[in-house]
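ok, trying the design again with the full structure, not the truncated one.
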């Protein structure tokens, strides 16, 4: 039997791909990559895995789903969590957990434009 590894790619289905792209690029600070899929924007994570924000798959109604991503934790590294927190507040992002020390350094959790909860931590 073959071995599965990863994750090596994460995608969020979003309501407004352009707004989500700007949020992850300008507020969160991810680096956008060329995307071969016109229905997605892809970002480098610096770890080998990539993140995409993409149009919903056919037949998916994001508004009919409860809390998007509930129960799934997506974490990013950011050496300056305090600056990220300030950018999130300035952009009006909902802060789920204010910055606090944790096992991965200073960490903050926030909701993106579609309600996905994302955590950023300062210790690589």
């Amino acid at each position: 039997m073959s071995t599965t590894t990863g994750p090596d790619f994460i995608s969020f289905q979003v309501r407004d791909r352009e707004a989500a792209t700007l949020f992850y690029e300008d507020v969160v600070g991810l680096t956008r990559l060329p995307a071969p899929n016109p229905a997605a924007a892809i970002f480098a994570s610096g770890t080998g895995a990539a993140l995409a924000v993409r149009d919903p798959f056919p037949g998916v109604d994001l508004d009919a789903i409860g809390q998007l991503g509930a129960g799934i934790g997506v974490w990013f590294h950011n050496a300056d969590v305090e600056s990220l927190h300030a950018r999130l507040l300035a952009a009006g992002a909902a802060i789920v957990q204010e910055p606090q020390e944790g096992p991965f350094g200073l960490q903050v959790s926030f909701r993106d434009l579609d309600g996905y909860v994302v955590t950023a931590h300062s210790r690589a």
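Keeping the full-length input from now on. The two ends are 33 Å apart (CA to CA).
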